[in-house]
């Protein structure tokens, strides 16, 4: 069973590890290896703590937790002036990809922002697995692209959007039947600014 809850300060080391390992696994062959190898869980944890402590931040961070309280995944989302909401990050421990953790996190984000809210995100063009995941969740590319530079190599990102959906909660109920209770985070519970 997976439970989604607001991220706390004690979760930061596990989240930093998930983010770094997630990048190193998902972006191998897309982002230069030198960039991925230089990523540091300690530096990621430091930046995350600074972001969470910022009283002007507007990002909410949630974690997916196993029954034994182990952190399995992390997502960060917040308001976006263009669409209403933006999903800044969603990472699952590499050994738990495909087990419903990502779907539980995304369902919790959708529940928190409200079923009538539009959401956007950016995904690497060559990250086929992530693109499939988001497309199955109702997202589609809207034609916007950006180039990000990683160790001197340009990498293309695509903007995906999910149109507002009217829901009676059936999707969350279906998810809960498969992976256990989805705790609906309060949007104002944790503030910060995500660094993807």
Looking at this protein, list some descriptive labels:
196 residues; alpha+beta; seven-stranded mixed β-sheet; 34% helix; single chain; 29% strand; 7 strands; globular
Question: How would you describe this protein?
Answer:
- With 196 residues, the chain is of the alpha+beta class.
- It contains 6 helices and 7 strands.
- It has helices at residues 12-26, 33-38, 41-53, 101-113, 128-136, 170-179, and strands spanning 3-6, 60-65, 71-80, 84-92, 118-124, 140-150, 153-162.
- It has a 7-stranded mixed beta sheet with strand order 1-2-3-4-5-7-6.
- Helix 1 (12-26) packs across helix 3 and helix 4 (101-113) runs antiparallel to helix 6.
- The longest helix is centred in the N-terminal third of the chain and has 15 residues, at 12-26.
- Mean pLDDT is 86; it is low at 174-196.
In short:
This protein is 34% helix and 29% strand. The chain has 196 residues and is of the alpha+beta class. It has a seven-stranded mixed beta sheet with strand order 1-2-3-4-5-7-6.
Task: Provide the fold topology.
Layout lengths: L2 E4 L5 H15 L6 H6 L2 H13 L6 E6 L5 E10 L3 E9 L8 H13 L4 E7 L3 H9 L3 E11 L2 E10 L7 H10 L17
Helix pairs in contact: 1-3, 4-6
Q: State the strand order across the main sheet.
A: 1-2-3-4-5-7-6
Number of strands: 7
Rg computed from alpha carbons, rounded to a whole number of angstroms: 16 Å
The topology string of helices and strands comes to: EHHHEEEHEHEEH
Question: What is the helix fraction of residues, given as a range?
Answer: 25-40%
- Can you give the mean pLDDT? 86
Q: What general outline do the C-alpha atoms trace?
A: globular
Estimated structural class: alpha+beta
The oligomerization state is: single chain
Strand content: 25-35%
Question: Termini separation (Å)?
Answer: 26 Å
């Amino acid at each position: 069973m997976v439970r989604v809850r607001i991220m706390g300060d004690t979760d930061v080391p596990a989240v930093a590890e998930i983010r770094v390992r997630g990048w190193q696994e998902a972006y191998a062959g897309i982002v230069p290896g030198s960039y991925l190898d230089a990523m540091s869980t300690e530096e990621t944890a430091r930046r995350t703590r600074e972001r969470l402590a910022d009283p002007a931040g507007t990002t909410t961070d949630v974690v997916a937790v196993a029954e034994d309280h182990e952190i399995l995944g992390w997502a960060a989302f917040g308001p976006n002036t263009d669409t209403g909401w933006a999903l800044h990050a969603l990472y699952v421990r590499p050994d738990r990809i495909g087990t419903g953790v990502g779907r539980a996190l995304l369902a919790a984000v959708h529940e928190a922002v409200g079923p009538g809210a539009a959401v956007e995100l950016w995904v690497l063009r060559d990250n086929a697995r992530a693109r499939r995941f988001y497309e199955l969740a109702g997202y589609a590319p809207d034609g916007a692209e950006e180039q990000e530079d990683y160790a001197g190599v340009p990498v293309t990102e695509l903007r995906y959007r999910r149109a507002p959906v009217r829901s009676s909660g059936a999707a969350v109920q279906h998810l809960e039947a498969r992976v256990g209770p989805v705790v609906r985070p309060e949007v104002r519970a944790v503030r910060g600014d995500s660094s993807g």
